[in-house]
Structures are given as C-alpha cells and as structure tokens.
C-alpha cells in the first residue's frame, strides 16, 4: 500500500493536470477552440512537453505553477469569447455542415473511431455552485460511457488507439478501460487533492459517479492508484501533505458512496476487497486527528450498503480494527467508540471484537453503568477537538440514553410508574431505568468528567446538555440542573470577562426557550436554579431568568402547581443543606474565577435566603392572575371559573403563610387536622422570628390584594369568595389544635386584644351575612378587614393592643347589634356619658394606627375612613390637619421672637418679612431686567407657572354666559431653594381644646422616642410617611365632600403646610403631595364650598392673605399657589351673589395690593394675574378703574406705569363689549367712561408730556392713547371728551397722536 514508489512523473505535472489535459501546457495552447475533445492524437502532441523543470525548488515550482494557472485562465476567457463569436456566425449562416473541431459530439481526429469527451467538465467540477458540479459529473459519466462502449466494440484496440498512449500504457490494472476513462480516473484522483474552490467535493462526486457507472472499471486498481498518485513523499511539507491526506479521504469516500465495494462482495463473498478497503481507511485515520471522524464516516458509508454477515467476516476482522478498539479507551478516541456503537447496531448478538469498549451483553442499562462510563471517560473528554462543532458521538449517545418512546410518552410513563413500577415502554425500557441512566450519565460524564475540567470541556458539557434538552423528561430536569452545573453557570455569568460567558448565556437562553409554555418545565427549572443557588440565581448572575419564568404562570392550575412546589421546597430538609459555591467544583487551574466582592456571600450555613425567596415569590404569583381587557367579553361562567381558580391559589398561599408564620408544632414536624382533612408540615429546626414576621407581612399583603380585587369593575354581578372569612375560620381551627401554638408568646394585653378582635370579627361577619349587599354591608366588610389586619399586627412585637381595644369599642358603638351579649362591665366602658364622640375616638384610633403600621393596615384604615368620613366632626378633622401641619424641625431661618404655636393667625399663607437693603438692591436689579423685555413677554413663567403668570395674550378668554368659573392651573414644580427663606409659620391651634391637642401629640410620641435614639433625621423620616398617610385620608374626605364648608378649613391648613414645607428640609414629598391635593381636589374639584355658613369676612381674610403671598413670595410655587387660590376664593364669593356694598371689602383688598405694587419695589405682583382677575370678574375692574387712572398717572416706576395701561385698556374693552353690566345698551356702556373722562385727559397729558426714553415704551403710550380716542369715538363721547381736555392736553394730542386725533380736532377756535 504505502511502500510503493511514486511514479516517475513529477508532482508538478500531476498538479498541472488538474486544470489541463495530459501533455497540454500553457505554452503549447495557442488558440483553443470550442468543443475541444480528448483523443490519442491530442495526447501525442503534448506528451513529450515538460511542464515545470524538476531542478526548481519547491517554492519556485509553486510560484511557477501559479503563473501557469493565471495564464491558463486568461486563455480560457479568450477562448470563451472566440467561441461565442463563432457560434453567432454559425447560427446566422445556418450551415448544415460544421467543421469537426466545432462539433463536440464528434471525434476530433479521423484516425480514431472512438468518440472524444469534453475536458471542460473538469473545470466545472470545481465550481462553487452545486448544480453546476452535478451537471458536470452527469456529462462526464455520459461521455465516458459512450467512449467505453465504443472502445469495447473495437477489434484491435492497440492499433486503433495509436502508438502513444502516455499514462494509459502503464500497468495500472485498467487494461479493459478506454484511454479516456483511464485518463479521467487519474484526473479525478488528482482533483480530489486540490484545495481550489470546491474541487474536492466536485472531483469526489465525479469519481463516485464514474466508478459506479463503468462496471468494467475495477475497484482494486482504483484503490491502488489512489495510494500511488497521492503518496506523501519526504519532500512534502505543510499544505502539500494536508492536500494529499484530504485527497485520499475524499477518494475513499467516493468509492464507498459509489456502492461498488458492496456489490463486489455480494458478487464474490471470498474477495478481500472490503477488508483491504477498511484497512486503508483505518490507516488513513491514524495519520491525523482531524481525519479520524470523517474516516469513520467513510467506513459507515460502506457498511450501510453491506449485509450484516459481511461485517463479521470482513469489517470487524480487518487489520487494525481490533487494535483500534482496544486502545480507544486508553488514548481517548471518541471516533472508535462512535464506530463501535454504530457497528453494534448492525451486528446480531454480542461480538468480542469491540473488547471492553462496549459491555457484553450490550444494553443501554449496561452501557450507562457508573463503571463503564468511567472507563469511557477519556473518549468523552477528547471529543472536544472538533469544537465548536459537536462530535457525531454525542447525538448517538443521547439517542441511546433517551429512546424516542420515552420522550414522546414521558408524562404517561411517569404517571404509570407510580402505580405499576415495572410497566415497560414500547422498546422494553422502563422509565425508572431511563432516569437511572440519565442520573448516572450526568454525574459521571457531565459533572465528573467535563464540568470539572477545562474551558473547552465545560463548553462541550453545555452543548451536550442542549442536545439532551429536547428529549429530556420533565422529571429529570432536576437531575440535569444539578448543584455543580448551577454553580458553574453562576460562576461564569457573574463575570462578563469569562471566556465562556457568551456560551453560558446561550445555554440559559435555550433553556428558557425549551421551557416554552409548559408549566411543568417552568416549575422544574425554577426549583432547580433556586434550590442550588440558595435563592440568589438572578442576583449572582445579574440576569432576569428566574423572574421571567415566574412571570409565565398565567393560569390557575399552573400557579397552583408552582405554589405546591414552592411549599415542598420550603420544608424540604435536603434543599436546605449548606452547599457552598466552591470554585474547585466547577473550575480548573486555567479557569477565570469570578469576583464576588459585589455580591452577597454564598449560602454557607445560612439557608434563610432560599426561604425568604419562597415567601416573597409565592404571593407574587397572584399578580399574573389578573383580568385583562379581554375579560370584558367573557361570559358569566368563564369569569366564575377564573375567580374560583384564583381563590383556590389564594387559599393555598394563605394556608402556607399562616402555618409557617403564625404557628409552631410542639410534637413532631407534621400535624393532621381532621376537621380540615389536611396535613401540615414544619421544618425540624424552629423557624426564625424574622421569617415568621415576613410570613405575616406577606399574609397581610395577600388580604389587602384580595380586598382590592373585590372592587374591580370587571367582577360586577359575581358572587365573590371572602378570603378574610376563610382565613379567620382557618385560624380558629388551628388555634383549637392542642399541639399547635402561636410562634411567640403574647403578653396579657396582646392576648386580650387578640381574643377580642377574633370575637368582634366573628360578630361582624355574622351581621354582614344577614344583610343584603349595599353600603351597610360594605361598611361592615371594610371594618372586618381592618380587624383582621390589626389581629395580624398584634402578633408583631409593638404597641397595638390599646388601639385594637379602642377599635373594638368603636365597632360596638357603630354597630350596636354586634355588642349584644356583652357583660355589663364591658358595657360601662363605652356608655359613660362623659366619653367623647364615637367619631372622634374612631378618628383618634385610626390616626394612632398610621405612624408605624404596614401598608395593608393603612389601606384598611383608608377603606374604613371612606365609609365614616361623612359623619366626621370638626374636631376629628382638625386632629388630622394638625398632623399635616406639625413639624419636628423649626424653619431654617425662624425669627427669634417666634413662639411656634403661640403666633397669631394673621398669616395662614407665609408672607415674607421685609428684607434689608441688600434684598432691595437685588429687587431693583430684577425690575430693571424685567423692564428690558418686551411688554407682551415680560412675565417670567420659566418655573412652570400657568394661568395668572402667563402673558396677556396667552391667558384663556373669559367664557361669556358661563356661571362656573374655573381656577387657573398652576403646577407644583419645585423651585431652587434660596439662601434666605420665609419667616416662621403660624401654628395656631386656637380651635382645639386641651384634650384634642393631647390626643394628637400621642400620635407622635413613638416618633419622639425614636428621635431620642437615632436623632432628628430618623424622627423626621418617620414623620414624613405619617403625614403622607394622613393626607390620603384628607383626600378621601375632599373627594366625598367637595361642597362642605369644612373644605375651607382644610384648604387653610394645607396651604400653611405647603408654605411650611419650603422652609423645612426633607419635606419634598409632602410638598408635592399637598400641592397636588390642592390643585386636583380643591381648586379643580367639580364642586366648591357653598352655603350660608360661610362668612364673607372669612373669605375676605383668605383672599387678602392669598394676594399678599402672590405679591411678596419669592418662591414661584408659593406665588403660583396663592394666585390659584385667589381665583378659587373669588369664585366662591361670586357664587354667593353679594351686593355691591358687601363687596367693598374685597375691592379694598385689591386696592391695597395695588397700592403696594405702585409704591413698593419689593412687590412681585404680576400684572397678568390682575388682568386675568379683571377678565373673570369685570365688576372688580369697574370698581378699580378710577383708582388705576389715578395711580397710573402718579406711578414712580415707568415700567409699572406701562403695565397699568394694559389693565386700564382691558377694563375699557370689557366695558365696551358689555361684559361689565347685564344691560348692554349704549348708555350703560358709556356711563363709566363718561364719568372718568377728566381723569383720562389728565392721564393722557401726563403720558404725552413725559414720554419714555425707550422707543418700545413710547409706542405703548401712543397705542394706549389711540385706544382711548377710539373708545371715546365708538361711545360718541367726543364732545364731552373735548370739554374735559385742557388746552395743553389738546396740543399734546394734536402733536403726538397725529391722524388718530383728527376726528377730535376743532376746525376753528
């Protein structure tokens, strides 16, 4: 085989034959013609022409060969062009006789009777296009078959073939073949060693087709020729050796695919052709590792076409086969194992030729035993050489590990094994055996051999598992996702720079995709990942894998399945063993060890992380069970079914949280309730108090969620299940079990409160069931849930027993039927005639629950308050408002003389004190800056103030005929805090008696205790949420009672608290909440305070304080709020229809504010705000018209004088349009202007005699004077106006106003 010498022909000649016929060199090819054929004459012409001198060095020969290739390609292109031209000429002449050289179907020489064949097919065989290669192979076979048939008909083959036959004359064993066939075989063998384009694939295809089609061509000579032509000499190096080896591989593959070897053995079973061929391929496989796997594929290609007896008599006893199998496990040869497994499928019975590589007798159970897998471990490890491609061995092993019947019927098999352990699947393999094999395979191969080794082998392990996933039964997920694998995933994913990071991410993504929509798979994956990561998989890996899987449970049965598995995980002692994330388990010395500095330490000795995750995740599942918008189209039965499924999940979660969080078993870890017909299980070790508290908190959240869900609009008409009643029945049942006790021992007060809450809830529940659904039933329901929440809160260490007892007393007063049956002693507790009002006590109790209670209790308090707020007293409302206004810290710049709550009640909106000269200078600069802007855009609204702060042209027009006047919207955008803030706030509490003040102070007693321990910041941080919770109650009251007079009191306190928040640090959330509450629930409410109980004097005081704040506050948010509140108060005043004499006080308030605007530079009153007020309330402008004329003429500030002109013009427009009076006749319109014509004349004289220096302001003055003249003309007051004008004024108008004054000119004086 390999000992024969290469033929004398040089490698360069053989290489050149890939692209040109034998003997034809680029130098000898002059003008190639279309249809050039190969015959003996062509051989003779170029037989003696050497191609490349043998004396050249290998590198020079290679360069020479490349140059020849380029020249040949150039000649080929010229040949194609000439042939195209020639074909066109032939088609045009339509000649019936064609020259022999132009007809491909005829021989090219008259001296030979054999047809020729086209050599172009060899070029097409290397085309990248598969269809071109297939067509070329078909043409080659057709032409060679024709040549061979003609050759066989010749009588004297030697004479007709010519004297010179080149290669054909050699003793190659193909004497019965035509010279063309012999040449084609050699050319094809040379071609499979070429690395050009797709030459190997194409020439192998051609070789397979030729050998399979020409039966006179014997296989054995071809095998010998492959060895001779592709022999590796000592002078070959690198790529040349590789080309020859791959050429042999493709040539052997072509022979195996042709089927001739199998046919030869079938015709003659005594031939050794199969054995020799197998020996050649085995020898080739041993030369290079990359040849081993394809060599096995070649053998299997041949074996598929052989009968089974040929395997035993030929293949298995071939030289080298037994030795290959024998040393496979020692050296780690996966290809030998793959070949053995494939051959075993064809061999009947057990063969000793496989040695120890396969067990005897062979079966999947014997193959996947621990000892045998350990023996084969080297083979599995060494299969990494073909990464990233997966070795062919692994799909075979996976199919052997999990038969198709197991993957198709896994669920049925799992169910059947529970009752019939020995039931077999279709292939006779029990499901228990499959699980056993999978477990052993994962432990020995995946974990023991691959994961504990190098990066490549870890990568291989992930790929093998991905191959295993599609066929994996759900019950085996936890076997595959073992502790070592999960830790390996965490180690890699926690470090993005890890070499395997992308591969591991891909594995995790495919794992989630495999889970799909199957709830069983979701549960198995989640439990495995969290169990082995101690509940921190997402945290460590910085992914959302577990969170995404938890969010996939959308159905009631799926959620219930997940909840049951979480319960088992919580009480499973094996899951809570300490499993440290040891790097040595999953990494080797070359692996990157991830840095866990930023993560929590592994769960060494601390198993609470997993329990915490279980407790936290279980109620979260209910968030997926929500009615979406599609539920509106559901029928009644579908909604009922959905609610039943959700209630079933809620009850299971509730029972778990109650059992694990409220009780502990004194006898053993399991307790059976015969009444409930259920068995409850606890851990051997006592549950920590922190976990118990967490269970109670989640239980409270669960009840809150159930209470919120009852108010859904989608559930109207459905009879809802009461989770609160179910919980209380369950709690009472467990309390009656002797072997169970509460997780902590209650004090006497707590125990008393606990029992009273139980009894009162039971009575209220009985009362609720007796009455029909309606407001009364809803009120009972809300109180019941507050009692349940408070009962759970009593189990927390804290001071809630007193509030619980007070709430019970309030329930007895609010629902007298519930107090029936109490002893006389208990009746005396609340029948005392000196006792406060029930609503005051209820409000006091509800407020005492808010400071340090959980969110669910606060929600329950809000629900109860919403049903009782209609009956709340002023004293109770005042208690709430004092909490909102209360501050632990004084204002940052409080005056020394401030006495806090002892201040008078003059400034309910914070009015800034007079600043010193520095502030005055700052104010002067501000005015100068404002004066430089255009008159239409001079107002600063950059802080988000709307309405009154907008420019005149941007203000919403007054809606004529509308009786409802809306407040102007102002945003709550926070302003940057200045260095100097507002002075102290008035905290007057004159409306409260000593008892009420004492009760309010007790609410913050606990906060002051905390303050002594942790400092002011801690106390203030706790007071802020308390205020926010009280504000929620205030919002409920405002929403239900928008038209009550008490809204004014609420507004007053909220406004003071809003201003106070600007002077207190750490109150941003309170400020935003109050601002939003005032805007949405007070100023923009559908209703506003009405009734004769509202005194005009009170409204005037509120209006005055609002206007002062609007004109003096340096905080834009306060100024905006003050302006909006002024609009709101004026709307209330307007709705009362007071007489003009009664409204004089309001007019005087505006007059005083305007006096301050004209006389004091510190005034920040926006003219746009006053203008909007006048537009909404024209009667106010009518009363202020003369005053504005007077002040405008004597104004010191030129800028403010110009702004006032706009106000005067606005009043005149309203008067002319008739909005100022109900009567729109001309006499009423001219009445006001006629009265103030002299004043208008004096103002015009003052303006025109002292024109501003700036051109824009002079234009404003002239425009105003022109508008006055226009108004006088429209109202036909020309004569009166002229009589009122002084001569100086007349001259100024005539000179300054030009054409606008022409209608008023006197012809002659």
UniProtKB/TrEMBL annotation:
Protein's GO biological process: regulation of DNA-templated transcription
Biased amino acid composition, Basic and acidic residues: 28-44, 68-83, 954-967, 974-983
Segments of skewed composition (Acidic residues): 589-601
Pfam family for this entry, one: DNA_pol_phi
GO terms, molecular function: DNA binding
Record key words, sorted: Nucleus
UniProt keyword rRNA-binding, yes or no: no
Protein location: Nucleus
Major localization class: nucleus
Disordered: annotated segments: 1-113, 577-604, 951-989
This protein's record includes keyword Magnesium: no
Compositional bias of kind Polar residues: 84-96
One cellular-component annotation, GO: nucleolus
Family, per entry: Belongs to the MYBBP1A family.
Stated name of the protein: Myb-binding protein 1A-like protein
């Amino acid at each position: 085989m390999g000992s024969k010498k290469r033929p004398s022909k040089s490698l360069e000649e053989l290489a050149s034959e890939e692209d040109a016929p034998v003997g034809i060199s680029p130098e000898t090819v002059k003008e190639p013609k279309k249809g050039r054929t190969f015959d003996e004459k062509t051989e003779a012409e170029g037989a003696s022409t050497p191609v490349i001198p043998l004396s050249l060095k290998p590198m020079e020969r290679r360069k020479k060969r490349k140059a020849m290739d380029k020249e040949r390609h150039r000649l080929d292109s010229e040949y194609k062009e000439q042939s195209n031209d020639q074909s066109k000429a032939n088609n045009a002449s339509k000649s019936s006789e064609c020259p022999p050289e132009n007809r491909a179907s005829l021989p090219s020489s008259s001296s030979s009777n054999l047809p020729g064949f086209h050599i172009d097919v060899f070029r097409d065989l290397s085309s990248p296009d598969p269809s071109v290669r297939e067509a070329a192979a078909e043409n080659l076979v057709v032409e060679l078959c024709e040549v061979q048939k003609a050759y066989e008909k010749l009588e004297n083959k030697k004479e007709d073939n010519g004297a010179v036959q080149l290669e054909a004359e050699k003793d190659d064993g193909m004497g019965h073949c035509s010279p063309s066939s012999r040449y084609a075989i050699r050319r094809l063998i040379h071609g499979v060693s070429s690395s050009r384009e797709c030459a190997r694939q194409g020439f192998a295809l051609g070789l397979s087709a030729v050998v399979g089609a020409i039966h006179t061509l014997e296989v054995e000579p071809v095998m010998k020729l492959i060895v001779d032509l592709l022999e590796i000499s000592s002078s070959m190096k690198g790529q040349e050796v590789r080309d020859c080896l791959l050429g042999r591989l493709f040539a052997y593959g072509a022979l195996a695919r042709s089927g001739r070897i199998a046919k030869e053995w079938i015709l003659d079973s005594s031939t050794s052709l199969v054995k020799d061929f197998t020996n050649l391929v085995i020898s080739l496989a041993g030369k290079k590792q990359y040849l081993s796997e394809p060599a096995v594929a070649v053998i299997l290609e041949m074996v598929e076409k052989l009968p089974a007896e040929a395997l035993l008599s030929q293949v298995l006893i071939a030289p080298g086969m037994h030795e290959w199998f024998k040393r496979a496990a020692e050296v780690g040869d996966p290809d030998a194992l793959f070949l053995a497994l494939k051959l075993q499928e064809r061999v009947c019975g057990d063969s000793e030729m496989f040695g120890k590589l396969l067990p005897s007798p062979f079966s999947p159970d014997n193959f996947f035993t621990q000892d045998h897998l350990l023996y084969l471990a080297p083979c599995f490890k060494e299969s990494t050489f073909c990464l990233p491609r997966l070795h062919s061995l692994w799909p075979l092993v996976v199919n052997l590990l999990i038969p198709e019947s197991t993957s198709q019927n896994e669920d049925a098999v799992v169910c059947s094994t529970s009752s019939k352990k020995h039931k077999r699947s279709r292939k006779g393999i029990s499901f228990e055996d499959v699980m056993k094999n999978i477990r052993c395979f994962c432990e020995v191969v995946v974990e023991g051999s691959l994961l504990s080794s190098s990066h490549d082998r870890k990568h291989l392990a992930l790929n093998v598992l991905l191959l295993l996933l599609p066929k994996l039964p759900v019950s085996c997920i936890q076997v595959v996702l073992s502790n070592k694998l999960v830790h390996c995933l965490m180690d890699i994913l926690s470090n993005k720079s890890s070499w395997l990071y992308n591969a591991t991410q891909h594995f995790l993504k495919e794992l989630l995709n495999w889970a799909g929509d199957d709830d069983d798979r979701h549960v198995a994956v989640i439990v495995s990942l969290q169990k082995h990561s101690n509940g921190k998989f997402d945290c460590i890996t910085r992914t959302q894998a577990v969170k995404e899987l938890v969010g996939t449970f959308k159905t009631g049965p799926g959620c219930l399945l997940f909840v049951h598995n979480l319960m088992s995980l919580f009480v499973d002692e094996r899951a809570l063993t300490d499993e440290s994330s040891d790097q040595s388990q999953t990494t080797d010395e070359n692996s990157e060890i991830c840095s866990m500095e930023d993560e929590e330490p592994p769960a060494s000795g601390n198993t609470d992380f997993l329990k915490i995750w279980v407790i936290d995740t279980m109620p979260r599942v209910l968030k997926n069970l929500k009615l979406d918008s599609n539920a509106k189209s559901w029928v009644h039965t579908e909604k009922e079914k959905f609610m039943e499924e959700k209630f079933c999940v809620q009850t299971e979660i509730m029972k778990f949280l109650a059992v694990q969080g409220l009780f502990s078993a004194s006898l053993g870890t399991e307790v059976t309730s015969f009444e409930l017909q259920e068995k409850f299980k606890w851990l051997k070790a006592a549950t920590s108090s922190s976990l118990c508290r967490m269970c109670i908190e989640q239980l409270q959240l669960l009840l809150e969620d159930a209470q919120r869900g009852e108010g859904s609009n989608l559930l109207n008409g459905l009879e809802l299940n009461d989770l609160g009643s179910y919980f209380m029945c369950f709690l009472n049942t467990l309390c009656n079990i002797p072997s169970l006790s509460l997780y902590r021992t209650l004090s006497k007060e707590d125990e008393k409160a606990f029992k009273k809450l139980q009894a009162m809830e039971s009575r209220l529940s009985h009362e609720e069931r007796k009455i029909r659904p309606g407001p009364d039933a809803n009120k009972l329901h809300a109180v019941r849930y507050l009692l349940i929440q408070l009962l759970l809160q009593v189990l927390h260490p804290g001071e809630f027993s007193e509030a619980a007892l007070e709430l019970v007393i309030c329930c007895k007063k609010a629902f007298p039927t519930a107090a029936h049956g109490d002893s006389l002693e208990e009746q005396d507790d609340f029948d005392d005639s000196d006792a406060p009002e029930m609503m005051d006590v209820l409000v006091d109790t509800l407020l005492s629950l808010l400071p340090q209670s959980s969110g669910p209790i606060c929600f329950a308090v809000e629900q109860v308050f919403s049903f009782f707020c209609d009956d709340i007293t002023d004293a109770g409302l005042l208690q709430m408002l004092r909490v909102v206004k209360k501050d632990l810290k004084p204002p940052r710049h409080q005056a020394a003389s401030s006495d806090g709550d002892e201040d008078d009640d003059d400034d309910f909106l914070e009015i800034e004190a007079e600043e010193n000269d520095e502030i005055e200078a700052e104010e002067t600069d501000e005015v100068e800056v404002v004066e430089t802007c255009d008159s239409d855009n001079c107002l600063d609204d950059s802080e988000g103030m709307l309405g009154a702060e907008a420019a005149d042209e941007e203000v919403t027009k007054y809606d004529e005929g509308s009786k409802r006047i809306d407040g102007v919207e102002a945003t709550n955008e926070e302003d940057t805090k200045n260095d100097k803030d507002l002075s102290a706030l008035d905290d007057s509490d004159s409306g409260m008696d000593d008892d009420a003040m004492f009760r309010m102070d007790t609410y913050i007693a606990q906060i002051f205790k905390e303050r002594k321990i942790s400092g002011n910041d801690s106390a203030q941080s706790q007071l802020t949420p308390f205020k926010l919770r009280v504000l929620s109650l205030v919002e409920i009251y405002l929403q239900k009672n928008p038209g009550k007079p008490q809204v004014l009191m609420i507004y007053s306190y909220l406004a003071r608290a809003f201003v106070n928040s600007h002077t207190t640090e750490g109150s941003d959330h309170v400020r935003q909440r109050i601002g939003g509450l005032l805007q949405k629930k007070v100023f923009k409410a559908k209703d506003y305070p009405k009734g004769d109980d509202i005194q005009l004097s009170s409204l005037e005081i509120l209006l005055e304080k609002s206007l002062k704040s609007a004109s003096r506050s340096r905080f834009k948010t306060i100024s905006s709020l003050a302006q909006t509140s002024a609009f709101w108060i004026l709307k209330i005043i307007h709705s009362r229809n007071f007489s003009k004499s009664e409204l004089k006080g309001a007019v005087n308030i505006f007059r005083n504010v305007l006096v301050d605007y004209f006389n004091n530079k510190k005034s920040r009153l926006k003219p746009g705000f006053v203008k909007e007020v006048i537009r909404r309330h024209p009667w106010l402008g009518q009363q202020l018209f003369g005053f504005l004329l007077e002040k405008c003429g004597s104004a010191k500030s030129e800028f403010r004088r110009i702004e006032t002109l706009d106000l005067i013009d606005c009043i005149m427009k309203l008067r002319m349009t008739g909005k100022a009076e109900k009567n729109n006749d001309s006499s009423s319109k001219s009445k006001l202007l006629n009265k103030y014509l002299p004043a208008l004349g004096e103002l015009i004289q003052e303006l025109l005699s002292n024109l501003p220096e700036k051109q824009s302001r002079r234009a404003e003055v002239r425009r105003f004077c022109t508008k006055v003249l226009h108004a006088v003309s429209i109202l036909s007051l020309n004569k009166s106006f002229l009589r009122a004008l002084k001569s100086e004024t007349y001259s100024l108008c005539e000179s300054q106003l030009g054409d606008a004054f022409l209608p008023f000119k006197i012809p002659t004086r």
